Amino acid sequence: MILGCHVQMKAPEYVLGSVKEAISYDANALMLYTGAPQNTKRTPADRLLCSEARQLMEDHGLDMKNMIIHAPYIINPANSVKPEVAELAREFLAQEIERTAAIGAAYLVLHPGSYTTTDLETGIATIAAQLNTIEEYHGVTICLETMAGKGSEVGYRFEHLAEIMEKMRFQENYGVCLDTCHISDAGYDVKDFDSVLDEFDRVIGLDRLHVIHLNDSKNERGARKDRHANLGMGTIGFETLHAIAANERVSHIPKILETPYINKKPPYRYEIAMLRSGVYDSSVLENL
Ligand code: FE
Ligand code: FE
Ligand code: ZN
Question: pLDDT at position 89, please?
C-alpha cells in the first residue's frame, strides 16, 4: 500500500524535514504545502533542501512520484467578480509549478476554487481561462481536487472537473486528486467504491486519477460541509477506508491522510499502521 499523510514544511530543514517526518510515521508517501496554506508567502526553492530530501527518499526506497505538493487553498482561480483575485492565483500558480519541479515532485494538487456570486458555468469558464494562460508546466501535472460543494465551490461533481480538463490547451498536464471526505460530502456513495471508480472512469477516465486523499468525514453523505475526521471516527468508517486503501484498481496511486491532529498530536503513524494491518483499534487514537 502506498500510504502517506500531510506533513509540515518549515525552517530550518524544509522539504528534508518533511521527508523525515513522513519516514517517522512509516509512510511511503507524503504531501506538503510549499509554505503556509493560507497565504502566498514562499521561501525560494533553492533554500528548501530539495536535493537532500530527494537523497533521503532514495535511501529509504521511496518513489518521488509519491511526494505530492498541494497549492495553497487561499488561491481562487474561479473568481471572476474580483479579477485581481484570479490573476493573483494564476501568477502564484505559475511560480508554484516551478517550485514543484524544483523540488522534484510530479503532482501539484489544486482546488478548482469558488465562483462566489456568479454561477457554476461562469466559475468553470473562469478557471479554464486562468489555467489556459499557463504556458510552462516543467513536467508537472496539476491535479484538480474533487470538492465537497461547500458554499460556491466548483468541482463537487466529476463532470465539473471533466469540463475544465476538456477546455485545457495542455490536457496532458492535468489530472485529478480524489478526496474521500469531499466526495462523500458531495453525495457520492464511497461505501460502494467500485461503483464510484466506474463513474469516475466513465466521466473522467481512471488513467487521470493520480492522488487519493483518504479521510473520514464528520458529516453525513451529501452534507456539502468538508470537515475531515480521523479514520473510523466519521460517517465513512474504517472498513470502507481500508477497502479503498486495499483496492487493486488504485493500488499504484498514493493515498494521503489529511485527518486532524488529536490532542495536538499527529495521528498518522497509528492510522497508517491500522490501514496496513487492516485491524482497527479506536483506543489507540482516543488515548493519543
Ligand atoms: Fe485539498
Ligand atoms: Fe483533500
Ligand atoms: Zn477538505
Answer: 84
Distance CA 83, CA 268 (A): 39
Ligand 2 geometric centre to CA of 183 (Å):
10
Cell numbers at 259, concatenated: 485527518
Rounded distance from Cα 146 to ligand 1 centre (Å): 8
Task: Provide the pLDDT for residue 39.
Answer: 86
Ligand 2 centre distance from Cα of residue 250 (Å): 17
Arithmetic mean of pLDDT, 112-141: 96
Would you list the DSSP string of 235-281? SS-HHHHHHHHH-GGGTTS-EEE-PPPBTTB--HHHHHHHHHH----
CA of residue 138 to ligand 2 center, whole Å: 24
Question: In terms of C-beta density within 10 A (0-12 exposed, 13-18 middle, 19 or more buried), how is residue 270 classed?
Answer: buried
How far away, in angstroms, is 39 Cα from ligand 3 center? Answer: 17
Mean pLDDT value across residues 89-105? 94
Q: Which residues lie across from 177 on neighbouring strands?
A: 145, 211
> What pLDDT is stored for residue 76 in this prediction?
92
Per-residue pLDDT tens digits for 168-184: 999 999 999 999 999 99
Q: Which ligand is nearest to the CA of 258?
A: 2
- Distance from residue 213's CA to the centre of ligand 2 (Å): 5
Q: What is the pLDDT of residue 224?
A: 98
Q: How far, rounded to the nearest angstrom, does the alpha carbon of residue 261 sit from its chain's CA centroid? A: 17
| Per-residue CA distances from 282 to 148, 257, 279 (Å) | 26, 16, 10
With cell 517517522, the residue in question is 24
Residue 38's pLDDT is 85
